[in-house]
Records
---
Amino acid sequence: MKRKLALYIMFTMAVWGGISVFIGKQTVHNFDNLLRNKLLLIVGAFAIILGLGSLIFHHTQKIKRNARYWQYSYITLGALIITSFIGLFGGVRGEGGLPTFFGGTVLGTYQGNIYTFQDKNELKLFKADPSRYAREDIALMPLPQGVSEDLSRYEKSVLLREIQLRNTSLQLQNLEIPLMISPVSGEVVPFEDDFGVSIQNIYEGILVPCGSTMFAMLAFYMCSAAYRAFRMRNLHAGVLLVSAFIVMLGQIPLITAFIPGLHDFRQWILDVPNLASKRGIMIGVGLGMAATSFKIIFGIERAWLGGGEE
Amino acid sequence: MNDRTIWEKMMQVDRRVIYLIVAIVMIVPIIFPFDLPIKISKRTTLKLFNAIEKFPEQRSVFFISADLNPQDQPELYPMLVSWIRHCFHRKIKVLVMCLYPTSLGLAEQALNQVSTEFNNRASQGIGRRIVYGEDYVFLGYKPPPIVPILGLGENIFDVFPRDFYGNELKDYSTLPMMENIKNYRDMDMIGSIAANTLPVTYIAYAQARYGIAVTGGVTAVSVADFYPYLDSGQLTGMLEGMKGAAEYEGLIRETFPEEDGRRLATEGMSAQSTTHLAIILMVVLGNVCFFMQRRHESRRG
């Protein structure tokens, strides 16, 4: 019965999705919008929960069974817990309800002009280390009232942006604040600031360098593979090799500057032979997708339902 | 005992030697970049540039779906920066959205970078100041991709009640540019920056249903996949990898002489060119060794 119910729901939704495009009635259009904008959003949210559950189950099982590379599962689960906690309770920039701050000791205190936002009395900018900024950096910018010229160009631009974003004004106060070194950026920041280990810090400090490194390594593998495996063993491989050469050479400005017509020849390869073959592949794939969709809609293809009892 | 030929030895050279060569040809041009004469691709880069140039000032909206990830950053990030710079120069409003959570940081970074560049120049009396809410709005991220792609065709406020910073989209005092934007009909073009086939998804769902123009910024490796859409006119030009981004940077510099921002793609082209050359030479060398060895074997019987 469970499988049949799923099939009925799928059939109804698929047929509705198809016919709603051809019915011009506003009521039909509105209902279609409701399904697509609201229902799909709810289904999507459930899919995330399902994916999360599946990830946790997979890695806990791996640890339980001492499967190959089970140690890495601890890292995955640990990263999931830490980032979820910071993301859920610490806010995008560490502005959330729960403190997500760790590390850091008071270095000393700073006394001077502190800029606070009028609405939230929030500390955002201050001169922690004036020696870092040259006097030449001070730009002649029309500044809001209360902001002195004793700021670097960068500080001013950040400050102006904050004012734009918050649609608020600033107050200038002479305060004494304790300082610390940020555990993420290494910069001197106010200890009592709302600074924390935010999702943005994790993104910039961990995800961006890791992702870039992984992709950069491809260049080494590709070069090694090209040297060892890209052989002109027969005519087909020869045609592939020559066309790849021309397209690659056409990408190099240094070469195209010396060989007239190479850039245009590369473009011709992309425009004519490439286009012809791509179209053929796309038409084939499109027909295959349509056939598979019909098989799923009419319940002929049921692999998507998975196992389990009827 | 050891009767291996020089060709055979070369074919089986230690992979670390190849890695070292690649490292050298990649790192040296990064440290000492050199200028390259970059030829503009008319069908792709120039077509897109001209299309944006034709948008009427002040009231046009360029919607950017910034779906780049850290691993695509060298190729796709300069495209995003260039599009934003071009729009700001031409007083075209920019609306940015992400379909993946990993794209949020880079999208925000690009918006901050370009607005800071403009505001710094404005402080020196060059150009105009960029104001959040008036010149651009960052919508943030909404899953799954099909929901915002279709939903934005009907009502943007249903899909994104708030922007990335938590401002209500209907709060026109904070985000005045949103007063005139309700759905795709109020936008002039969608620019999809992605390392996958998302531009095609925009063509299939947003363009086919709502008739909006679509363009793409894609990685060089996936360029061939988009040519059928370029040929049919469904894509209004596109940027092809780092070379496309470098071409666009050059066009912006030519058209707007006051533009003095860093040209990341142009800088990266020298390293990419030398690495491409190294790969080509490696393949040639590998094949020469292969044929010489085969010849040697056939002679030996």
---
Amino acid sequence: MIEWVGRKTIAGYAYLAALATLASQALLDLILPTRQGRRESWLVLVRQILFTGVDALPVTTVIALLVGIIIITQAGTQLPKLGAGGLVGSIIVVTVIRELGPLLTAFIVVGRSGTAIATELGNMSVTREVVALRLMGIPISRFVIMPRMVGMVLSMICLTLYFDVVAVLGGYLVANAQLTIPFYAFLEGVMKALSSSDVALTALKGLLFGSAVAAVCCHHGLAVRSSFTEVPQQTTRAMINSFVLCLLIDVVVTVPLYL
Amino acid sequence: MNEAALILEQVRMPMLGSPHRLDVDLRIGAGEFVAVVGPSRSGKSLILELAAGLVSPQAGRVILLGHEWVVDLNDESSPVRLRLGTVLQQPGLLSNMTLFNNVALPLRYHRASMSERDRESAVMAQLERLRLVPMRDRFPAELNQGEVRRGAIARALMLDPDVLLLDDPVAGLDAEMVLALKAYVEERQRTRTLTVVAALRSFSPFIEGADRLVLLRNGRVEADGPRAALAEAVASTLRHYLG
């Protein structure tokens, strides 16, 4: 039993070290660009932002609106019973902007783009496209990993902030229709509860979640060796590990700040 | 002998899926056209992978254009890579790019200063020589096996390499195209010093262009020399590889 725990712990550390190596290499490639292939890497980055960020806007809008509506519906019907009807604005800040916004955005990005990256890189490994790039003298980290990581991080930050705004808007729709709270009163409640550190923290979470998801998905995609059946296996692992890592990061960031 | 382009010095390496192991000592001169022939699982592809620096030998050294390969996963930026064109058994055309963009990729990545017009004309010239112009805007999944292979050969030649490694270059090619490819490789060799190492699993007219044949069986060199000389020297069971 102790041996099993020890083996798993070592494997866990090795996994995290591999992710950290991948992410730090991508960071180095970003801050120390070479003239070679700059335009090509830039094009991959733009495509990644379009896919992860822009294309995800409709689904993010729908989910954020629904989350905002659900939370304010629940808060608006329960809080007045406790004599805390005035906290409707702050409830959306605490639940959505601090927690659900970054987490749900991360889950959307994992489901849409993380799995797509893992699948794409997995297929590229099986069809030996990754080897072909190496043979052409094109660094995988610079041409494949860095643009995907940077694209995902930028998209995640923007999508998280967008999610928060839309969820607040969704909350307002219910607050106005069901609870007859006027827009300015609702906005005042939100602004009173919202601090600049909340906004900074939500952006920080976007940055950390984006880096983690991109590193996990690239790692698992490139871990595929020689069979197409490995692709869905690694994609599933990438998805589950991304979820777990995002929740872990969330705990590590949130607990010391708010406890 | 002229300067060596590729040296496999007492290379030993286990072969996947075979009880035998590769055990070769080869020296290929600059500008030579060498065909490595032999049955499946005789070690032909492994020789090319060693030469391309994709795998490290268990023992011995592999020296390409004076550079000893020390396989490192981050060795893509090694300058010797830009002097080497390689087409493996699985050609590895990027599936999310059209044939044109695949062939143009080495130029776009490594010759960023080249104008788009020059780049396009270089790519089109290459596609024309390999009879791929009508396919330029197709994705690899829309091409047949021979077209994919020719596309990969075109891509491997884009940076004017000093050494060209071809694993089964004639797979999926019709007879006419095999002759055209052979003529094209010979023409490239006439215009500049190009060393060609091609692995072939059966006789093909492509072999006729080779200066030298290396006959491989069970990971060992059975015979090495010009085709005519080998035909007399090797066992009758291996003669059909020579035509």
